[in-house]
Structures are given as structure tokens and as C-alpha cells.
Specification:
Chain B: It is found in: Cell membrane. The structure holds 2 protein chains of 2 kinds. Chain A is an all-alpha fold. Chain A contains 19 helices and no strands. The chains are: A mainly alpha, B mainly alpha. Chains A and B meet through helix 10, helix 12, helix 13 and helix 14 of A and helix 7, helix 8 and helix 9 of B.
Amino acid sequence: MYTFSSKLKVFSFVLIVLGILGIGYSFLTAPKTIEDVEKILNEEAAHGHGGHHAEASHHDAEFTAHGPAAEESHEGHVEKAHGHEATADAHHAEAAHDHDEHHAHLEHVLHQLKNKPWAALYVPALFFMLISLGVLAFYAIQNAAQAGWSPVLFRVMEGISAYLVPGAVIVFLLLVAGVLDLHHIFIWMDEEVVKGDHLIQGKSGYLNGTFFLIRAAVFMGGWILYRQYARKKSIAQDEATDNLNFKKHFKASAGFLVFFIITESIMSWDWIMSVDPHWFSTLFGWYVFASFIVSAVTVIAMVTLYLKSKGYLEYVNNSHIHDLAKFMFGFSIFWTYLWFSQFMLIWYADIPEEITYFVTRIEEYNLPFFGMVVMNFVFPLLILVNSDFKRLSWVVVMAGIVILCGHYLDFFNMIMPAVVGDRWFIGIGEIGSVLFFLGLFILVVFTALTKAPLLAKRNPLVEESKHFHY
Amino acid sequence: MSSHYEAPIRKPLIIGDKNYHDVTVDVARPVEGRANKQWWIAFTIALAAFLWGVGCVAYTVGTGIGTWGSNKTIGWAWDITNFVWWVGIGHAGTLISAVLLLFRQKWRMAINRSAEAMTIFSVIQAAMFPVFHMGRPWLAYWVMPIPNQFGSLWVNFNSPLLWDVFAISTYLSVSLVFWWTGLLPDFAMLRDRAITPFTKRVYSILSFGWSGRAKDWQRFEEVSLVLAGLATPLVLSVHTIVSFDFATSVIPGWHTTILPPYFVAGAIFSGFAMVNTLLIIMRKVSNLEAYITIQHIELMNIIIMITGSVVGIAYITELFIAWYSGVEYEQYAFLNRATGPYWWAYLLMMTCNVVSPQVMWFKKIRTSIIGSFIISLVVNVGMWFERFVIIVSSLHRDYLPSSWTMFQPTFVDAGFFIGTIGFFFVLFLLYSRSFPVIAQAEVKSIMKTSSETYKRQREEQGNDNHSH
């Protein structure tokens, strides 16, 4: 049995407390009124950010001209879909209503800045929940495929997937908060915006608060149900005299994978793609999947290495690590494949309604956007291609840290441009949120690991796994 | 590579009391024996179809592309449909030999040789379409970036059709090398068994002097692994590039980002269906039922079921996003697929590809030879229609209603396609009589872990868990 070391427990509490302080600070310092924003902008101008401000201001002039939709909207690209009329009107607006325009710009920035702490919270909340969901999917695949190498890691995977319960609850609460109008991460939830936007109106049969929350509840319920059932069967198999639990578990895994492949796509449209309600991409669901499955395998490898280093995983050898590292390597390339496919096809055809998505990212998020490709592809490609390196703990941990940071950035790039636009910054709010969820994750996962023996005893394939050498 | 211990719940992959010598004899028998009447009948039919195809191609090249049913609106129809279909079929071969090798699937060993042969023969069929659908195929060499006397006039590297040239030619060469490397020990086996000086000579040349020393085997395995590691991204990228032919365009119904992985999934789907069809016949006529067992067929069926579901998800995603996009052209493209003049093709594609593989959830059907055979054929029909629907239904009605039209294939379109099917079977039938259709060296390597005999022995004498 694993005992949660008090040092690690204290560490997780420290992370949680630091995280709460950071989150609290970012909420408290977020501007509340237009006057606050004016002050911030003046300060920025004084510090030489004038150019940036002016540019944003012009950008917003086009925005305002489009009417209430644009006024309320937080997106850089909304107006570009209607670029033609908006620009024409903008010239008119610029001349006539200089004052109004300035006011509208301030309001726009206010919305972005008000959203910033919420988005900072939402990105890691989603990221950590999807990691544990990814672990669950990987676990189901291992079971359904009757893998012979991984059963000694099953309890580790079960432990990590324990975070799915609190993680899903937190994400669900954040979605509810959106529907209750506490934040504006999803602008289609804003009735004012919908009134002035016929494109969103066309989608309201799908994008509406009630249906959105029902879907979220069903998806999360389904995932948690499988997680709890699989865990129960896995533990029951330890003491069983036959393989009945194993067989039931096998069937449940296959069923879950079908449910997962459907809900995963829809989940990514709902919780991520809909922050840009004008934009769409058919590949998006699978792209999101690639991003969190590689992070999930990385987390499995890192937790395994930690437990092994503390002497808890007797049967795990460097061949198991080698296999996990291969999956990290393979999924990193798979992620890049999907990233490139999505990016290149949209870049190549250059259709206005799609291209804005990448235009805002390349213009305003240049470093995070291309930086993540280096972190998620170039780095793991060069490091993990070597077979000997894949057996070295420190190499796997180092590559793992880069991959996890890279995929956090990936989610950051998916959410932030729509929500805070060019007001993004990785500051106290963002780091605090990550620390909070990291602390919670460690606390939940390692507590779950203490609840059952770390070796799935009577799994029919565990003997193969114990003797696994590659 | 793998441990000597194998879980008792795993079913044997070699059934009947076979020893090493039996494997050799069973694999060599079709090569060493004489062809029977049925083989000659099949070969004659295939050859006739092939020659008919040659005639149709000659007629096309001599008279012009206007002999086909394509028109001003629908510039691509059967030619590219067949091209994508054949490339797709070819993918299962690499998948079985490379991806299943990376995933250490021992069951691949009985089927990889034939799957790779199928890859090579179908890529050859595929490669003919890009050449003969050209208006001036005799200038085809202009697609190569070769220094020349037009002031060194080069190709534009921005076109996915050029990427196709590189993708297909690389794919064919790598697959051929991968296949041939694996054949060396097996050709050596045939060489060593040869009785007539002629066959001795032939297999001596083909086997490159393989003598099976430890060092050779060590390098052989290393090469296989590296090639598998290279072939896997290759197989993904090749069909991805084929999908780019459509996805990079601005045609509603073509321009969609899911096309790359969805084409790849479809390729695995149709490729496995073809492998299944061929192997169900081959295990019977070549007496290889001890090696290509029901379990092999079941596992192929499961892969067909999984990839069929992935393709199904992609269909639904496309439909949903077309609605969600709010782009009326996109919405109409899908409405037209479902309710336009080609509704029957769309319905066929949906039933064959999405509904039919779902029956594989029933163990009774996926372990039945007849059931698997029928579904495999159905899948290949469905996948042909998938490409047809994507290509033709998106082209025949797009932005300008004044250019809407229909497509009517001519006998030349059909003749070319029939010709490639004939050519494929000519090659495959010749292969099955002259090549070792099962990688005997690989099958022998799993004899002690996965044959029925050894499994029974282990069960009787108890498992020695700690033998490494």
C-alpha cells in the first residue's frame, strides 16, 4: 500500500494556498469600471505602450460600427467576418463619433480585463480535467486491447483518473457560472450579442445555455460512471476466484471508448470551439484529443517515475518507462500532424471566415502560438527519438515537463484570443490558477493512490506485465 | 524483445500440431507445386480484364480524355475516385506490417506478407490514374523538378498534386524495400529447398545471399523496426496528402480540416476489408488455415469495426459542422449529398461504411467466415462510393447554379477501372504462386509462445514464470 508522504501533502497544500492567493489577487485587481480601465490605459501609454493602444483603438473603431453585437463582443475577429460593411461604417464613425468610439473601446477593454481572471481559471481547470480524462481513455484502451505490458501501471492510471470527479465538478461549475452571466468566456451566452448577430442566432438551437449544460452533465456523468465502475471491477478482481470482473471490465471499456469518441468531439466544440462562435473546424475535436492524450500519457509516466523512485512499484522496470516514453513521442507527433493539418488547410485556402482564427493568433499570440509547436513537437522529437534516452528517468521527466507546459500553452492559445484578445499575459492570475489546480491534482491523485494496493493482483495479464522486457 | 511468459487467456495463433518443419513445408507448398485448373481460370479472367483495361487506356491516350464521362464542371470523377480507392486499399499493408509491428501484435505475422504484397500491387494500380488522367500524359515527366533547357523551368511546390507525386513514389519505394527485406529469409528458404537448377538460380538471386547469421538477424530486426517507424508516419502522410487534393480547395464539401485523419481512417478501413477478402480465399485455396485462423479474421474484423466507427464519427462531424458553420454553400453541399440526384450513392456509402461494420459487435458475425467475407466486400463497395460522393457530389453542384450539371461515366471510365482490378489480380495471383505468402521466419519466431502445441504443453506442465 502506498502512503501519501507528508512532504508531498504539505507541498500540495502550499500550492493550493498560493494558487488561491494568486486567483484572489487577480480577481481583486481586475478593473471594475470604465474609469479603472482609463487609468490602466493611460499608464500603459505613459510607459510606451502607446502604439499598441492606438492600434487596438483603431481595431475597435471597426468593431463599434457594427452595432451592439460588436460592442459587447470580446473577439478580435468577429468584425472581420463582416469586414466589408464594418470598415465602411467605421470611416463614418471615426469622423463623427470620436467620443463614443473612445468610450466603446474602453468598455471593450473592460470586458476583456474582467474576463482575464476567469479565463486564467478556466484554462487550467479544463486542462487538468482533460488530463485525467485522457488517462481514463488510455486506461480503457489498454484494457480493451488486452495489453500485456501495462497492467502493472493500472493502479497508477486509476489513481490519476480519480481527479476526474472533482475536476469535472469544477469545470461544470465554471460552465454554470457562464450561463448565469458571471463571466463572459462564452459570448454566445450574452443575449445582447445574440440579438445583433445573425450567425450566432442561426446556431442558437445548439448553442443555448440549457442544452449546453445538459450535454455537459451527460458527458461528465458518463465518464465518471465508467471511471467508478472500472475502478470497482479492478479492485474486485484482486480478490476474485474467476475472471468475471475482468470480462465485465473489458466490455465496459469497449463501451466507454465508443461513448468517449462521441462525447469528446462534442465536448471540444462546446467548451473550447464555442468561445469563438463564428469559427468552426471539423478537425477540432480530434485535435483537442491529441493534445490532452499526450499530456495524459506524460502524467502517467511522471507519476510512475515518482512512485518508482520512492520504491513503491516493484514490478515496473525501465521497459515500461520506455513504452510510455514511446507513446509520449508518438502522440507528440500525432498532435503535430493534426495541428499542421488544421493550420495548413486553413492557411492554404485562406477563406475569410476561417482564417481570422489564425490571423489573431499569429498577430497577437505569436510567441505562444509558435512556441508551443517547438515545445510540443521539436523538443520531444529530438529528445525522445533515442531508445536509450527513453529509459532514463531524468530525460523522460524533462521531456514531460516541456510537453505539459507546451500543452497548457496549447489550451491557452485555444481559449485566450477569443476571451481577452490582445490583453493576454501570463501573470499572477494565470500562474496562481495553474498552481491551484496542480496542488488539487496532486492531493486528489495521491490520496486515491493510498486507497488500493499498487499492483492489480489477479488481472489475467498482470504476470505478462511483471515480466515485461523490451 | 518480448518475455517468454504468455498469459493463458491468449488464444493460440498457430493451430494444429505444427513444428518448424511443418511451417516450412506448408508455406513452400503453393510455390513448389503446380497451379491447378481454378488458378488458371482465375488468372485468365484477370488477364482478360487487364488487357481490356490496356485497350481502354490506349484509346484514351490516343483519342483524348473526352472519351471519358468527365465534363467542364466535373473534371475529376472516376479517375480520381479509383486513384484514392486504390491508394486507400494499399494502406492496410503498411499498417499491418509497420503499425502492428510497433504495437507488437504477434498475429500480424501470418498476414503481413500478403498485406504488403497487396499494398504494392494496389499502389501500382493507383499510380496509373494520375498519369492517364492527364490530357497530355507524354509530358508527365514535367512534374519532376529536373533541370532543363527551358531556362530551368521548375514545378510549383504549392500544389498538392505535386505532393502526391512525391508521396506515392516514396510510398511505393519504401513499401517495396520493406517488403523485400522481409522476404530475404523466406526466399533463402525456397532457395535451399529448390530441386531444379532453374528455381535454385531464381531464388538465389532473389534472396541476395541471405545466410541467417546472428549478426544478420540482429541487423534485420533493427532495420525492420526503423522501417516500421518510418513507414507509419509515411502511411499517415501519404493518404493525408491525397486528402489535401480536396481539402486545400475552396469547394464546399471538399474544404474541411477533418479530411486528413478521416481519409487515413477510411484507408485503413477499406484496406483491412480488402486484406480480409483476399486472405479468406487464400487460407482456403493454399491450405493455410492453421496460420490464418479465425482469430486473425476476428481481429481484422475488429479493426474494420473500429475504423468504420471512426469514419462514421467523421461523417457525423462533417454534417454537424456544415450546419453549425452557417455557411449556406456548405449546408447545401451536404443537403445535396443526402437528397440530391446522387442520394443513392450517399445512402450506399452510409449504409456500407457506417451501418455494416457495426454488425461486427456481434461475436457470432465477426467469427464467421461467410459474414466477414460479405462485410469486407460491402465495405469496399462503400468506400468506393465514399470517394465518388466526395468528389462528384461536391463538384456537380457548387457556387454557381449556372454551372450545375450531372456526371455520366462512359464504358472507357469503367474499362480503365476494370483493367486495374484485372491487373491487380494478375499480379496477386502470380505472387501467390511464386512468393512465400506467409513470413515463415516470423511465424517460427512465435512458435514457442503462441502455437497450440506449446500452449498445451505449458498448461499441462505448469507455467515457469521466472524463465527469461
